[in-house]
Amino acid sequence: MSKTNKYLFIITIITIFSICLVFYILSTLNSSDKQLDRLENALTTTKNLIEEQKRYTLSLSILLSKDKELINSFINKNRKQSFDIVNTKIKTLKAFQNSNFEVQIHNKDLSTYLRNWDFSIKDIKLASFREGLVKVKNSKKPLVSIELGKRLNIKAISPIIKNEEFIGSIETIVDFKYISQYLENKGFKLFILLDKKYLNIATDLKQNEKLKDYLLVNKANISDLKDLNLEDMKDYGYMSNSKYSFVYFSYYDLNNNPLGYILTAIENEEQVNLNNSFEYNIINKNQKVQIK
C-alpha cells in the first residue's frame, strides 16, 4: 500500500470513528431529553394528584364540620351517636365515590374526641405534635396539608364553630394508596420517603422499611431505590439507577421544616444516567419564608 493510500485509509478510519462518536453523543442526548420529558410529565402528574387529593380531603372535612346531626351529637358529647353518624357517612361515600378516608374529631383542648376506626380511643393530647390542629384553632379556618402525626398522610382540618367560638375540629385523613395506584396505571412508581429523625412522632411507621436516613411511607419495593445517592438530594432533581429513572421533590411541614422526599419513577430502558439536583429560590418576605 502506497504512503498516500495509507494516509487516506487512516483519515477514513478517523472520519468514520468521529461520525460514529458524534452519532453516539447525539443519540445519548436525545435519549436523555426523552427521558427528562417523561420525568417532567411524571412530576406534573404526581403534583397534580396530590393537590387533587388535598382538595378532596378538604371538601370532606368542611362538609362534615357543617353537618348538623354530627355537630349536635358532638356538642352533646354523645360519642356513640357521633361514631355511628361518621361511619354511616363514610360507608355512603365509599359506595358512591369509591373513596377511602378516615375521620378524627377533636375537643376544644385539641384532645381526641373520636376516631372512626377505634371507638375506645379518646382524650389523647395532640397539641404538642400536631401543629395543624393548633393553627386551625388559632385561625378558625380550614387547613389541608401533608402532615406528620403517628402516620404521614394528607390531613384536612376544619374548625367546629358555635356562636363564633371554636369548640373543636373535624379532621379527614387520606393515605397515598389512591395516588400510588393511579400512577402505577400510568406506568409510574411512587416512593414517599420520611426522614428517620421524625420516628419519635411517626411511631406507627417504626416497622416500615428503611434506607439510609429515610423510611418508606407507602407500599412500594424499597429495593428499587438501591444505588441511589439519597444523601446528595436537594430540593428537587433527577436520579437514575440501572432499573429506573427518578424525579423527586422535597415536602415540608407547616413551618417549612423539610420532612422528606416524594419520588416518581419510570423504567430506565435505555440506561440513561441522570444525577441533577437543584434548590428552590427562597425569598424572605414579611418575615415569612416563601418557597417558589
In brief:
This protein has 292 residues and is α+β, with helices and mostly antiparallel strands. The chain has helices at residues 3-65, 68-75, 79-97, 131-139, 177-185, and strands at 102-107, 112-115, 143-148, 152-162, 165-174, 189-195, 210-211, 214-216, 236-240, 244-252, 258-267, 275-278, 282-285, 288-291.
Describe the structure.
The protein is of the alpha+beta class. It folds into two domains: 3-51 and 177-291, no CATH class; 59-174, Beta-Lactamase (2-Layer Sandwich), CATH 3.30.450.20. Helices cover 37% and strands 29% of the residues. It is built from five helices and 14 strands. Helix 2 (68-75) packs antiparallel against helix 3 (79-97). The chain is elongated and about 65 Å long. The termini are far apart.
Tally of domains: 2
- Overall helicity: 25-40%
Indicate the low-confidence ranges by residue numbers: 18-30, 282-292
What is the helix/strand order?
HHHEEHEEEHEEEEEEEEE
Individual helix count: 5
Let me know the largest β-sheet: 7 strands, antiparallel
Radius of gyration: 26 Å
Task: Give the SSE layout.
Blueprint: H1 3-65, H2 68-75, H3 79-97, E1 102-107, E2 112-115, H4 131-139, E3 143-148, E4 152-162, E5 165-174, H5 177-185, E6 189-195, E7 210-211, E8 214-216, E9 236-240, E10 244-252, E11 258-267, E12 275-278, E13 282-285, E14 288-291
Helix pairs in contact: 2-3
